[in-house]
Amino acid sequence: MSIYAKLAYTLLGLFIVLNWGMLMSATFRKIVARVAGRHGIPFYQPWIDLIKNAGVRTTLSHGFMFYLGPVFRFTGAVGMFLFMPALFGSDMWSNFSFQGDLILLLYFQSFGMLGMAIGAGDGGHPHSTIGISRGLAQHAAIELPMILGVISLAIQYHTLSLNEIIAAQQGGFQHWTIFTNPIAGITLLLAALGAMGHSPFNLVKAPNEIPIGPPTEYHGTYLGVLMSSGAILHVIEAALFMNLLFGGATNWLEYIVKTFLIYFYSVFVGVVFPRFKIEQSVVWFFKIPLALGILAILIYSF
Questions:
Q1: 191: three-class secondary structure by DSSP
Q2: pLDDT in tens, 154-199
Q3: What secondary structure letter does DSSP report for 211?
């Protein structure tokens, strides 16, 4: 396949993922509203918001890095999609995955968070440093057990290629990592709760409680970019755990079903449990998830 054909299929896949992520975002808001006894938004609301934000301009002026924050976050989301195989065994939907791509994906996962931290620091708000310290502290606590879980899988499969990890899980659900390496699987699923950014680990943005932050500091097109990157990240992060633990996907229907179940696992946990304080969140990740991650490495190292 020529590079132009592969690029065309990759962009088409990105379009599918973006719209699927926006639909999942609407479903998430609908579920939370119904649990709270409200009707909630219509399912097409995210598309209306995106079009509206694209036509709005802001007169506020901040530092240069403030406006690069959403760009960094969008770049991290798109980068994860570009270098992650969308469908296993398909040359059209393999994107630009390569040997050792799992390391690059972990870097891209942190890229958006670091970019938003730099953007917040250049925003001029006197309390920006509080949000930055909260976000980075929690992100570091989430990343540690997640990286330990990934190292355990790298030891188990003797590779850092996501495509080879998916290939090792083919032949039936009994070959999925969640069954062949359940300790690393549980570690990664616990880390996924923080990576998805829902309650009880969403104090950094604290919906309905903090009248500042990205949703209010950024306006118009910048907010639209944040919405788009958030929608892509919802799907791509779920797809990452799908590929690591649940055998990947060989067609788009399987892709949609598996990412839906993984994403809404974190949504349902968020609906049930109240929000943690940052110190509670960090301590939580440094207990059971961290211990399980270390145990998973020890088991496959001997």
A1: helix
A2: 999 999 999 999 999 998 899 999 999 999 999 999 999 988 888 8
A3: S
